[in-house]
Amino acid sequence: MDKLQITGGRPLEGEVRISGAKNASLPILAGAMLAEGPVTISNVPHLQDVTTMIGLLGRMGVSVTINERMGVEVDAGGVTECFAPYDMVKTMRASILVLGPLLARFGKADVSLPGGCAIGARPVNIHVAGLQAMGADIRIENGYIKARAERLKGVRLVLDTVTVTGTENLMMAATLADGETVIENAAREPEVVDLANFLIAMGAKIQGAGTDRIVIQGVKSLHGCEYTVLPDRIEAGTYLVAGAITGGIVRVKSACPSHLDAVLLKLQAAGATVGQGDDWIEVDMRGRRPLAIDVRTAPYPAFPTDMQAQFAALNCVADGVGTIIETVFENRFMHLLEMRRMGAEIRLEGNTAIIKGVSRLTAAPVMATDLRASASLVLAGLVAEGRTEIERIYHIDRGYESIEEKFASLGAQIRRVPN
Ligand code: UD1
Known about the structure:
Layout: E1 2-7, E2 13-17, H1 22-31, E3 39-42, H2 48-59, E4 63-67, E5 71-75, E6 83-84, H3 86-89, H4 99-106, E7 108-112, H5 125-133, E8 137-141, E9 144-148, E10 156-158, H6 164-175, E11 180-184, H7 190-201, E12 205-207, E13 213-217, E14 226-228, H8 233-245, E15 249-253, H9 261-269, E16 273-276, E17 280-284, E18 295-296, H10 308-316, E19 321-325, H11 334-340, E20 345-349, E21 352-356, E22 361-362, E23 365-367, H12 371-382, E24 384-385, E25 387-391, H13 394-397, H14 403-409, E26 413-418
The structure holds uridine-diphosphate-N-acetylglucosamine.
Uridine-diphosphate-N-acetylglucosamine binds at residues 23, 26, 93-94, 120-127, 161, 163-166, 191, 304-306, 328-329.
């Protein structure tokens, strides 16, 4: 298994191009199964999670062709089985996104329950209850969700908790349902809006995506289309924090600034000068030490849980004391235990971390535990004295395209080595 070696101490400077969003690509790839004709999706990032989703679709008989220039072509005309096995779902929870499309289009889905993961229990009860309310017959047997339906029926759904993939699964299922579905307390994330725009391009009738009330008029069938995935706001945010934490100047291009409002406000509060244009953002922290900031995670448009670990790293070397409150997932502080081993001063009280910045972290061997935790360890390594080695970096490859090339292009001393 590879590891990353990072020698800290250099301010990062330069420009980096942001890839297509992982969390939009996954539901869009699954949603492509709803169409009767071929779908071409561009700006899909080269990531392990995308490869897993393509593998899952292929195993069900969906034809997936990857064309470097044009994108990914998906044709679900030849689906042979509506089955997502445990060995795939356990490596990627987002596999659950095939449940809604399979049931709506083929009337049948056997999808493994995801089980626990490193950042908490993460149940899928809201996905299941929503589909049941739409008339699906669902049994949980031998660790599998076994769902059957003739044609789903439109209903009014009030989601218990704001859930991103739950909203996406139910919105996809509703596109082919009989009548109108209303999803109340829907997730408002930009990736939900991107999926809605993709479904609309296939002929779906959806209003209100991006608000907490999405209304879907079911149609009889959907057709093929061409679609370009939106930029990854979490990848963009991660490189911007890298600029700030190292006291450098980093510009991200091919990004969508309005999706990062909450993150940019925190970077400004940390003392960075933030500039932006239509599709770029620049963070300038040259000659300054970041100031400690307080962060509370919550569903979009509030501060994203997927940026929590990166700002925790920033607080580790900031001037002052900063508090991080995680409200979306329990147990999402594993990275902090690793950062402590690098000399960070962190006190944990339930879902709150109180971090007192130190002037310098020191390198240590550390272990990645989940996707965003790994990114935060890279950031910590960039400001640590000495050479940090990060193990289990397969977590990083799930969500960051060419991470060492991109960081190296900004002047970081980083390399991937076999273990
Ligand atoms: C998605 C993102 C992930 C991000 C998260 C929160 C994808 C592929 N992943 O994950 O990167 O960190 O949103 O922004 O888009 N919950 C329930 N019951 C359910 C579903 C969720 O109780 O049926 C709870 C979860 O345990 C969690 C909260 O709702 O506490 C939010 O989770 P959710 O939005 O569903 O996260 P994901 O969609 O899995």
